[in-house]
Amino acid sequence: MFTRHRTEALFLKKTNQGETNQIFTVYTKDFGKLEVTAKAIRKIKSKLKSGAEIFYYSEIEFIQGKARKILTDAVLIKKFRQDLFQSQIAYQISQALDDLVKGEEEDIKIWNLAKETFAKLEQHPEIIYYYFFWNLLAILGYQPEIWRCVVCQRKLIPAHLYFSSVKGGIVCSDCSTQADKEIFPETIKILRIFFKKNWATLSKLKIDNQYKKSLAVISEDYFTHILKANTI
Ligand SMILES: [Zn+2]
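Above: query sequence and zinc ion SMILES. Below: predicted holo structure tokens.
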């Protein structure tokens, strides 16, 4: 007999397999990231359909088959996907979670962060990806130094400041090199609020386009750097 495992899961990705199957990447409360195969889910009468779809938060049951985990039940708790823009953000969050979290390992901090993130997607679509991304990195041990210059350790004064993915944080103008990216003091402030998880402030935050752009540039740069560092 196969052991039936029940857990809560966030559905991140799906790919079609064969005529009627789908393979889902899910992040679960008790087993971390998994791939589960939903057999015959594309048939009209599939009972899995109502609970297994991307950006669903569901209670699932699966068994370990010979080669793959097979989804045997999925009961919807909440749908997270809303409009098109929110869907795009949800894809971004799912991608980051899939790329940065390796292996099947329970991690309650990542689970809680992912659940909180999807729950806040509808209300805060503009910032929620960045909130998730930087806090996920902190959990994974990649929190950058954003309080002092990562090279000379001096306290930062709001002037010309830079971000270095390679050095792992903010660099003052004396220590900066050409490879470092300029960062606005306001962007650094936003990062600090993310790490403090200060939602009282985050809920009221209106971020100017220039700071949003700088946040996007730095996030992408750090993301690429960490993916590279992990593949060597
Ligand atoms: Zn310095």
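DSSP finds six helices and eight strands in the chain.
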